[in-house]
Amino acid sequence: MATGSLTIDLAAIAANWRALDALGGGSCRTGAVVKADAYGLGASRVAPALAQAGARDFFVAVAEEGAALRKALGPGPDIYVFAGHMNGDAAAIRDADLIPLLNSPEQVERHFRLLPRAAFGVQLDTGMNRLGLEPDDWRGLRDLVDGNGPRLAISHLASADEPDHSANAAQLRTFVEMTEGLNAPRSLAATGGALLGRAWHFDMIRPGIGLYGGLPYADAVPAVRLSLPVVQQRDVAVGESVGYGNAWHADRPSRVATLASGYADGLPRAIGQSGSAKVYAGATACPIIGRVSMDLLTVDVTDLDEVPDTLEMLCEHQGIDALADLAGTIGYEILTSLGHRYERHYAA
Ligand SMILES: *Cc1c(COP(=O)(O)O)cnc(C)c1O
């Protein structure tokens, strides 16, 4: 028995891609960010489903992910690498036909020296100060880069999930200044930027989290369901405690179910402390009680007439962002932490 059963809805992911694609109104392309194994959901299954939905431009974090993705997708789709051309990447970039988004003068020099004529793009820093060529570096390199035919010029917004943040407009202005007249398609928006409006779309939007059902794309169709098997049940008398640190005490005669999943499966230990985390039996909420262990968690099932074989951690009543809120984190982290011990099912 696995520690839980994770169902990944490929049809929902494809539907989210189509809905985000429709935001562009046909005037820009829609890529798909599948870094970190498609946000933990399995790039080898997710990316082909997105390709079938119409995606032609894929984005990964590093060349190694790109090489694995090329095997899953076969020849044809473009695969861009956010980390660019790092030291030691030349063979992978060449063999898997990857497009590094060059981030620094060193990377530009390395790529043109080791793989002259190979495809590339550029990533520009417009204010996030994380990755990308700084305006000063770019001034010196722009003509050289432009002359070699970049396939894409991108930048990334730091606060796109806050539509009113002044950094959005400032980064937009800087991006326009840095890329005006450049002989390459341009892309500024991830999920948050795509929702800001057409001015942010340029030639391509590149959503990640929105495909997988997460905020800031509030209209997304949820893409994951997680059910956890009950290992054991017991009655607990008033005053008895449950779990590590004797942290929870029964104040009524209680029925407690122990589930086969814990923080080693990516369930944040903090949900045990929050006091308001639940699992679901159908529509009925069962509070998570006591501390989350490495491989186990405990649930108050006193109010259930009958305890099912499995209880739902992620379902229509509690999505990735609701669970994230309880743990003081974000849906992205919930998804990318989903454990390798879960039995994975893909629904098409
Ligand atoms: C992760 C990432 C994306 C996708 O972001 P989401 O918020 O998941 O849509 C797009 N562009 C870059 C540079 C990224 O690092």
Automatic annotation (TrEMBL):
MF terms (GO), sorted A to Z: alanine racemase activity; pyridoxal phosphate binding
UniProt modified residues of type N6-(pyridoxal phosphate)lysine: K35
SMART domains (UniProt xref): Ala_racemase_C (SM01005)
EC number(s) on file: 5.1.1.1
Cofactor: pyridoxal 5'-phosphate
GO process terms (BP): D-alanine biosynthetic process
UniProt keyword list: Isomerase, Pyridoxal phosphate
Catalytic residues (UniProt): K35, Y244
Pathway entry: Amino-acid biosynthesis; D-alanine biosynthesis; D-alanine from L-alanine: step 1/1
Signal peptide: none
Chain positions recorded as substrate binding sites: R130, M294
Catalytic activity from the UniProt record: L-alanine = D-alanine
Residue ranges of every copy of the Alanine racemase C-terminal domain listed in the record: 223-347
GO cellular component, one term: cytosol
PROSITE patterns, per the entry: ALANINE_RACEMASE (PS00395)
EC main group: isomerase
Role summary: Catalyzes the interconversion of L-alanine and D-alanine. May also act on other amino acids.
Family: Belongs to the alanine racemase family.
Protein name: Alanine racemase
Native source species: Oceaniovalibus guishaninsula JLT2003
